[in-house]
Amino acid sequence: MFFNKKQKLTLNLSLFTVFLNLGVAIFLSYYVFANGPLILETGAWKAPYGIILVADQLSVIMILAVNVIAISAVIFAASSVTSNMTQHYFYPLFFLLIAGVSGAFLTGDLFNLFVFFEVLLMASYGLIIIGGSKHQFRESVKYILLNLFSSILFVTTVAFLYSVTGTVNMAQLGERVAEVEQRGILTAIAILLFIVFATKGALFPLYFWLPKSYIVPAPVVSALFGALLTKVGVYSMLRVYTLIFSHKLELTHTFFIWVATITMLIGVIGALSTSNVKLIIAYNIMPAIGFMVLGIGTFSAESLAGTIYYLVHDMAIKAALFFLAGLLVWHSGTSDLNKMGGYIKTAPLMGWMFFIASLVLAGIPPFSGFIGKYLLLRGAMDEEHYWAAGVGLLSSLLILFSVIRIFIGAFWGELKEEPKEKVRRSGLAASAVLIAITIILGVGAEWFYPYIQSTADSLIDPEIYIDYVLKE
Amino acid sequence: MEIVMSILAGTLFAAGVYLLLQKQLLKIVLGTALLSHGAHLFILTMGKLNRGAPPILEKGIKIYTDPLPQALILTSIVISFGVTSFLLVLAYRTYQSNKTDMMDQLRGTDDE
User: Fold this and answer.
1) Do the Cβ atoms of A118 and B108 come within 8 Å?
2) Interface predicted TM-score (ipTM)
């Protein structure tokens, strides 16, 4: 923060910090999977009274994914962050974002979740306007207003919940809601909370702010937003609707399945409707969110495992695609697909990486997208949500079409315009790291699956979490 | 007392939403400020309004005020204070760079 004028020093310091963070995250996950959840009582106040941070399996998986994204983002930033951006505190805001996201994944207190939401939103408000162009201001106003509104709604919902149950600790909430078997008013609160998370996660009726506002900032910022911000909304849903509100499944979770199905459809239609490369990628966030919420709505151990798998996979691949789209736009000097063509000759490596990334995104077998989708759809079939599964299959086909369209349009054919600049090396390296991770996740699914499965099992049975947190 | 406070919070919410739906950016910002005030009052009300008792819970003490809502509001006020001031600056800069503060003129097109 204090070296904002010295670009080289800031970059090296950031690289050191993200690797340190990854080390800590790896140790933490090792510890949690070996010895069970870890609880930090801030200020030594005991669980139901003080604020607690809980690192259970789900949290550490997410933390691990966040830190991998952070590393690739810093590598990408090495070539893309201008001295102007550094001077306007790109790196401090970046780390504030990472801190907010990690905090949201770790907290065991609903009000504290709101606070971490605000931390990461504040950082994102700063990041989205770095550069200060006309479009950025215009889109960021909408982004901020909508997020502010949903935050106010979040506070109100927490107040409702506090007045009904008398606590904001998630574990105790889970216990007390279970005691009264989720009466009518609590289901109403659950739906209200769903609206909050749906706004953050860009689900069907509340998605309109997402695509435009995600394409205006610098590519590294879009990648961070696309990889992390919406996923925090999904994580919160995953936590709240398995731990607290899981007693009126036929009402809340059926509703989720409907919303998820419509979100998938709207997302792919949006992705097909435009020829702006960045916008296509931004629209592709939505079907992915739809898939994850479908898993939460189906609510079986298998579909939850699918959701977790897909969450991690999607974080990596969305960041990689945003990186590649950013590189492509720099290379060609335009974001309009109709003006591109033939870049496979000038940038072969980038072209083939884009091709692989498209296959990963669409869920073609050996890659990681396939495993997540397979689990989700099989879960949905087992619970007899055939319609949702059918729409899921259709939308994966359309996703493949929408991203392959970029590959064909930008890389095939004759060279239409001379490239504006060479492909930036560190940008390619960052995307390569992420694509490699998704391939490892896919090919090595047998190694990872037991961990994901045990995480899903612990989610389906909230008693485990509650006992851990509220033990004497 | 709780009834009066709830009605007050509701009025603030209604006014806030009305202002949010306006076209002018400044009115929208004021709307969010009113909304957050409404939310804060609402938290206070939800924690039950008691007077004349300390927020201490020990064995034998029956009357006490609940300190938690106050802690929540304090956090929430600070956050909304920061966000509102940020939003005001942003609204001003948006007006400067886009030469308009009407929301219906702040639309974008697909290709830019």
Assistant:
1) no
2) 0.91
Q: Tokens 């059918």 label which residue?
A: A390
**Side chain identity at residue B69, one-letter code:** P
Q: Three-class SS of residue A228?
A: helix
Enumerate the β-bridge partners of residue A169: A109
Q: Min CA distance, A144 vs chain B (Å)?
A: 8
A80-96 pLDDT, tens per residue? Answer: 777 778 778 888 899 99
Polymer length in residues for chain A: 472
Which CB contacts under 8 angstroms, 24+ apart, belong to A52-55? A52/A107, A52/A108, A52/A109, A52/A169, A52/A469, A53/A103, A53/A106, A53/A107, A53/A108, A54/A106, A54/A107, A54/A108, A54/A465, A54/A468, A54/A469, A55/A28, A55/A106
CA-wise closest residue to B39 among B6, B68, B88: B6
Q: Which residues of B touch A (CB under 8 A)?
A: 20, 25, 28, 32, 35-36, 39-40, 42-43, 46-48, 68-69, 72, 75-76, 79-80, 82-83, 86-87, 90-91, 93-94, 97-98, 106, 108, 110-112
Amino acid at A167: T
Dist. CA A269–CA A274, nearest whole Å: 9
Give the integer Cα–Cα distance in Å for A90 and A126: 8
Question: Hey, which of A47-56, A402-411, B44-53 has the most confident mean pLDDT?
Answer: A402-411
Q: Which amino acid is at A315?
A: M
* CATH of region B2-51+65-101, choose from 1.20.120, 2.40.300, 1.10.287, 3.30.9: 1.10.287
Which of A261, A262, A367, A273 minimizes the C-alpha distance to A320?
Answer: A367
Provide the token pair at A190.
């659950």
Torsion of CA A288, A292, A293, A298, to 10 degrees: 140
Residue type, A201: G
- Tens of pLDDT along A377-393? 898 888 888 888 899 99
| A220: CB partners within 8 A, 6+ apart | A73, A76, A77, A80, A81, A323, A326
Domain-wise residue ranges, chain B: 2-51+65-101
